[in-house]
Amino acid sequence: MSAVPLPAADPVLEVEDLRVELRTPRGTAHVVNGLSYAVGQGETVAVVGESGSGKSVSVLAMLGLLPPRVATVTGRAVLQGEDLLTMSPERLRQVRGPGAGLVFQDPMTSLNPVLSIGKQLVEGIRAHDDVPKAVARRRAAELLGEVGLPEPDRALDRFPHELSGGMRQRVVIAIALANSPALLIADEATTALDVTVQAQIIDLVERLQADHGTGVIWITHDLGVVAGIADRVLVMYGGRCVEDGTADDVLERPAHPYTRGLLGSLPDLAAPLDPDGRVPDLATVPGLPPPPTDLPPGCVFWPRCPVRSDPRCETEQPPLVTVGPGTPGRHGHVGRVLEHRAATWYQEGTAR
Amino acid sequence: MTAVPTPGGIPAAPAPGEPMVARPARPRWRETLGLLVRDRTAATAGLVLLIIIVVAIFDETFASQGPNEQDIPGRLQPPSWSHPFGTDDLGRDILSRVILGASVSLKVGFLSVGLALVVGTLIGLFAGFYGRWVDDALMRIMDVLFAFPAVLLAIAILAIRGPGTSNTIIAIAVVYVPIFARVTRASVLGVREEVYVRASRSIGASDFRLLTRHVLPNAAPPIIVQTSISLAFAVLAEAALSFLGLGTQPPNPSWGLMLAEGNEFINRAWWLAFFPGMAIVVTVLCFNLLGDGLRDVLDPRQRTLMAGGGR
Amino acid sequence: MSDILVSARGLEVHFPLRGGKGVLRAVDGVDLDIYRGETLGLVGESGCGKSTLGNALLRLVPPTAGTVTFDGTDLTALGRRAMREMRRRAGMVFQDPFASLDPRRTVAQTVSEPLEVHGLRSGRRERAARVGELLELVGLDPAVAGRYPHEFSGGQRQRVGIARALAGEPDFLVCDEAIASLDVSVQAQVLNLLRRLQRQLGLTLLFISHDLSAIRHISDRIAVMYLGRIVEIGPASAVGSTPQMPYTQALLSAVPVPHPELERTRQRIVLRGDVPSPAAVPSGCRFRTRCPAAFEPCPDVDPALQPVGTAPDHVAACHLHGVIGTPVDGRTAEDVSAAPVD
Ligand SMILES: Nc1ncnc2c1ncn2[C@@H]1O[C@H](COP(=O)(O)OP(=O)(O)OP(=O)(O)O)[C@@H](O)[C@H]1O
Ligand SMILES: Nc1ncnc2c1ncn2[C@@H]1O[C@H](COP(=O)(O)OP(=O)(O)O)[C@@H](O)[C@H]1O
Ligand code: SF4
Ligand code: SF4
Ligand SMILES: [Mg+2]
Ligand SMILES: [Mg+2]
User: Regarding the domain with residue range B45-307, which homologous superfamily does it belong to in the CATH classification?
Assistant: First the structure.
């Protein structure tokens, strides 16, 4: 089989064995436990998982945005040849704009409510590029036009509270893109938005990606969005990657019981009706994720796993291994076959 | 792809995240007290206050000497074994006077603040909850009261009603009513909009029920803090009014009055002002610390550490 | 026609704008019948008035015009006391389970409140027993009754909220975004629970959500709301698979499905621009400023709901189905849905 290991040919970002521990009143929280992945040029990697699975913390850790007194971060996160984790805070600040742009769920928290949109954009541009104010302002207007804000010149003088949620999120994206970053990280960027606005934002990101070759990390729990935008998917649970592969593999041929549970809990309109002519109940994953201060010794999913039967499940962490033939890659991977891996002792047919 | 087993086929998986274990029920006040005791600072403050209050109640027992018993030859004696706090210019035992002053100062503090608390909170509660004209009418009155400088207002009341302890209590209460009304109203305005208030209304709860079961308990923390601050200030205010000759009338002792009287001798006999001053400082501090502790302990969310969660 | 439990006629909720100039038309002329025992899904973009409508049906916000009839009683004519008694028969489940439970009251106190308010169980012990039953009904261990909301996960809190809403044995339950703030797997649990309760207790459900997949899963009928008005309503299968109004079509096309192949090939109708402010509702058809199919009568004539499609009881408000004017290039609603406009 000609499967290549997952790292992209020409990665923008390479994460290796990222681990994050947070000191909490309840003890040490193992929030990210050995995460490795890469994002290629123009590629979209979706990170999915339930609330508390460590999605946000993993990216915050890479960008040095966790409180240093609380967080211990180890591993490597190489952005365009430079390790973010060993960088000086000064250099990290320089890299954040042109290297990696960040978009969070709530646009209001990333915008300063007392500064006009224009001021904030100009500030962002001039922080990394020493151009005259007038030039920066012209570029700011162009950016707003690019993200589809009507009347960009007038929008520059408006304040965040005067814009709708979708418009605000577009402004945040414009700020994130102000320095044409090589990597865009969107953390639940469309979760709070209506589907119609979400469609607009996704459209926008895809267009910008095609134009600039930006690598994208798209953090979400909406598997529908993932199907639409992701080249590759990384399923996180309990701070670990439990399954990864192309969107087709992970969503159509999920191998990990957790991924199957997540997909099963989505309403499926194509599902056959019950004998009494009703839409069948949704399959659910019972229970809750384990608290990161108290992870089970074996498989993290063991306490909730409906198919655990292997004796190793309870005691030994399953490694991430190839589970299928893989699928031909797209963006940046054309001509290669991308692996499909999962971390479970479960194998088809062995379950009760 | 094998289908995910139906829920029926799922073995009962223990879910470590689910906090589902039963907990023995304990009366709420006992739990509250238990937690307050565990908060070291608040517990210490409470203990000290308790001692002060007990001393104030049984002042006659604790005072070694009548407060107004004079001993002119033994005047202005520094602290000693027979007079731990020294004696004043008339030879009266300062310790005994501080003990007896406690009952006056605390009575003024508790009664004036208690009065202001009840009246002010009710006004703030109605103004905040009903809004519109109720709010306008009540708060305009409060604004008028609030517009006078506090001391001036108290002096004016005492000037009209005449000096004395009970009039001091009324004067201080009148000064604090608008403060409690404002604090309560601000807090109620926030709580009124909470979804759980709407939820309770949606099941048909009456306004009385909404106010007593949901709005007041949740609006209480700033009121508790304000109470402890006001208690402290009331003791000081009584001192100030007595200092001006409008509060407690000599020869009866109150901490404020003693402070005022001792001031005259501050260069020759520091203990005259020092010990009543210390009594005020310690009491005020304890009220504040206890108030903070109480506010935390009354919040169920503070009782158990928050369970983890990404939001 | 089956029995109608809740009915709104010409319902309006207008809020005065700050500064005194003009009004905000949160609900702007809604006629709606909810049949006994059905689940009606109410969907629409944020700010279109779904919650306000749900609240107005229970008179939790006062309607500025129109009537609401509940099981034959005109709620808008009821006095305060009578209205409070009426509340036993209609419950509400709120979006945010973190905000909708009083943090200072135990689960038992919260769930037993309706019992106390309506005097449904006399005596402490009987109420406690009923609280236990209710908790069991929503899948919680009765032993947790003495705990405070913060000790529960989001899904568990939402169950407590549902138990409270059911305590008065209501006929009608309004679920306002009841699953929106929950994780996917927990959403599934709560959806299943609501469906089970609805069947078991014969409830009539108004399920408000902006999640079309959930709406299509749980509803018998779907109502689509836009700027304070219901613009399409009909059987879930008909509205979900053959929507007749351009707005519904756009909304449905924007819902992503978890199948990559489908997502890559599917045409999305991406609507341009934002929802207009409900304080400045466009003339004529209120959707015309974003409608990819708008034609000449749209700015002048406000379309009324009229029968559309093949399913009985399926109505939509759009001139493409009317007799006024001819769509440019002679398109019909079916054409528009078949060939999405970008
Ligand atoms: N500053 C912090 N101190 C202690 N624990 C934290 C901190 N930030 C996050 N955590 C914990 O780390 C875990 C992972 O959090 P994270 O925010 O990454 O989850 P997530 O997958 O992004 O979830 P969500 O979908 O809710 O955003 C959670 O259990 C959370 O409680
Ligand atoms: N009490 C109120 N005062 C003024 N405007 C309100 C009030 N409640 C709701 N609105 C407005 O009414 C419109 C509809 O609100 P809502 O029903 O909450 O929308 P949805 O539930 O669809 O998100 C929104 O524009 C909202 O801002
Ligand atoms: S390793 Fe075992 S417990 Fe874990 S997911 Fe696989 S089968 Fe389930
Ligand atoms: S009436 Fe006109 S504007 Fe309104 S939805 Fe139909 S075609 Fe579009
Ligand atoms: Mg997050
Ligand atoms: Mg709403």
Answer: MetI-like (1.10.3720.10)
Q: Is C80 on the interface with B (CB under 8 A)?
A: no
Report how far residue C119's alpha carbon sits from residue C105's, in angstroms, rounded to the nearest whole number. 19
CB under 8 Å to B30, separation ≥6 — which residues? none
Domain boundary among A178, A193, A209: A178
The whole-number pLDDT of residue A163 equals 79
| Owning domain of residue A123 | 109-178
**What residues does A101 pair with on adjacent strands?**
A184
| Claim to verify: residue A90 and residue A114 sit in the same structural domain | no
Overall number of domains in chain A: 2
**Please, what are the domains in chain C?**
4-89+171-183+201-338 (3.40.50.300), 101-169 (no CATH)
Residue nearest to atom 8 of ligand 4 (CA): C294
The predicted-structure confidence for B203-253, as pLDDT tens digits, reads as follows 888 899 999 999 999 998 889 888 888 887 887 788 778 777 777 777 777
The answer to whether residue A254 neighbours chain C at the CB level (below 8 Å) is no
Q: Using CB atoms, which residue from A197, A200, A269 is nearest to C216?
A: A269
Q: Is A188 a pocket residue for ligand 3 (Cβ < 6 Å)?
A: no
Helices B216-243 + B165-192 axis angle, to 10: 150
What is the distance between the alpha carbons of residues C5 and C18, in angstroms, rounded to a whole number?
A: 36
For chains A and B, CB pairs below 8 A equal 72
Task: Read off the pTM.
Answer: 0.79
CA neighbours closer than 13 Å in the CB half-sphere of residue A105: 10
CATH number at residue A317: 3.40.50.300
How far apart are alpha carbons A59 and B110 in whole angstroms? Answer: 55
Q: How many other CB atoms sit within 10 Å of the CB of residue B291?
A: 21
C181 and chain A in contact, CB less than 8 A: no
Output the furthest CA–CA distance in chain A (Å, rounded): 71
Question: Which one of B1, B6, B10 has the shortest CB-CB distance to A286?
Answer: B10
Paired tokens of A318:
């399953």
Instruction: Decide: A305 in ligand 3 pocket, CB within 6 A.
Output: yes
Is A200 within 8 Å of A227 (Cβ atoms)?
A: no
pLDDT < 50 regions, chain A: 1-8, 349-352
DSSP state of B213: I
Q: Which ligand is nearest to the CA of A55?
A: 1
A184, β-bridge pairs:
A101, A216
More confidently predicted of A255 and B273? A255
Are B214 and C87 in contact (CB < 8 Å)?
A: no
Q: Do A2 and A82 belong together in one domain?
A: yes
Chain A residues in contact with B14 (beta carbon < 8 A):
287, 303
Out of B9, B309, B311, closest to residue A306 by CB: B9
Q: Does residue A218 form part of some domain?
A: yes
Domain boundary among A178, A210, A232: A178
Indicate whether A216 belongs to any domain. Answer: yes
Burial of A8 (0-12, 13-18, 19+ CB in 10 A): buried
The answer as to whether A310 is a domain residue is yes
